[in-house]
Amino acid sequence: MSSCKRQLDINYDPDRLPATNNNVYPQLLTSAQVGIGFESGSDLFRYAELIMQRMSGLASQPNQTYDYSRYNITGSDQNNVWAQMYANTLSDLELVIKQASAAGSPHYVGVAKILKAYQFHKIVDTWGNVPYTEALQLDANTAPKYDDASTIYPKLITLLTEAVNDLNAASSTLSPGTNSTIYSSASFTTVSRPLWIKAANTLRLRLLLHYSKKDPAFMVSQINALVNTAGITFLAANADNFSHPFFNVPNQRNGIETFERNRAGYIYADQQLVGMMNARNDPRRPFYFTDFPFGSGQYVGVSAANPPANANANYSRVYTFLRGVIVGGAAPPFTHGGEAPQRMMTFAEYNFIRAEAALRGATGNAQQFFTDGITASMQEAGVSATNIAAYLAANGTLTGTTENRIRQVIEEKYIALFGVPLESWTDWRRTGYPVLTPPINRLASVTNVPRSLFYPQSEIDLNPNHPPQKNVDLQDRVFWDTP
């Protein structure tokens, strides 16, 4: 303390990285990726899983998941996730793009642009019109105007195209290495870069498919142009999955297991998903859910049409596929390791995208992609080859009208994307599949399945440029969700 060297600086916050330091962007990228990983198994994930009746809180009353299952999702409930996505993750990514661009590190820029596009498409798909062009300016603009969502999607598709060009740059001052928690590798050029490019191209397919109801001709032409591009690559195996790793270590477990540990008894299996899987004798059930009664080989979900009058635990629980290995308990409810990856976009999804697009007129063999999607999902869950073959023999052939075959694709995709945030909700809004029955004890103001969520109350209170709050029935549609 008595040295002539400056030891303390009361004007410097050690917990706030200086934006003027061009060496900060590697740490910012790590922070943003970890944020995306945890967030993808957090609030928005639960809203969509409960709305889509893959999980249920109707046996856990009275608490938040009970209310969410009844569509009682208020604007105040979304303050934290909105702040996390905008003020933390996207703010970090914007700084990565700016700093890495100035430092001559296009490989960092490319990765950050992919993550930015991924984050913004989830925001649009949840709320519709949101801040984009005036967002992420920090103190320069604390009340950004809202963009028409239909103008944001084309910008995200362009952003992904730019990202691939950045990743293909011949040189980069710095490239993401083991500091990248997604597609982490010491060899960016030979290992990580090809995976990021596959993820970017597959995410473009996902966004283009979302136009299936609004502009099917555009969707078909753009997907055809993309898949026929020379040298194009997409997710090609489960090892390519766009996912975030987690570990059986305190503060490093995935968001799904963390919630289950902290809120035991809040989440059960829903009869909508369990019933579909039971009808198909689906061999993924022992990986997705515990059986009930334990050891019976039977799987029971909470019925939205006949929920229990009081809280009870007489239902299957979420199991190892989403929560990791069992580390405690001889019978449900188990404690899990939490090291299961948080899946955000998978090889199975790529195949189902291609199958649906082909049925709507795009290039590709719908039957082959359908088979490959089911197979990829089964293999990732740990199903044996014998059981996969038996399931495909009974359920793996597309039949009937085009609409009936699309329904088959979406229903299998709904099962396969268990744990992937939001996308099945988007599929339902686009296609109407699977057919959902609103809970009998839903709110009187929300009589139908929600089509978007309220804007966060923090935006209504603090941003004078916010649009009117959503209608109380939650039937406001995102731009691609045309009637």
What's the structural blueprint in terms of helices and strands?
Blueprint lengths: L24 H15 L3 H9 L3 E2 L7 H6 L9 H24 L3 H22 L2 E2 L14 E2 L1 H19 L20 H22 L6 H12 L14 E3 L10 H8 L5 E2 L1 H9 L5 H4 L31 H4 L2 E3 L6 E2 L5 E4 L1 H13 L6 H16 L3 H11 L6 H15 L6 H9 L25 H6 L21
Antiparallel strand pairs: 1-5, 2-3, 4-8, 6-7
Identify the CATH class of one domain: Mainly Alpha
Which ranges are low-confidence, i.e. pLDDT below 50, for 5 or more consecutive residues? 1-20
> In this structure, how is the largest beta sheet organized?
2 strands, antiparallel
Q: How far is the first residue's CA from the last residue's CA?
A: 70 Å
CATH fold naming of one domain: Serine Threonine Protein Phosphatase 5, Tetratricopeptide repeat
Shape descriptor: globular
Q: Calculate Rg over CA atoms.
A: 23 Å
Based on the structure given, which CATH architecture of one domain is correct?
Alpha Horseshoe
- What's the SSE pattern? HHEHHHEEHHHEHEHHHEEEHHHHHH
Structure classification? mainly alpha
Helix content: 40-55%
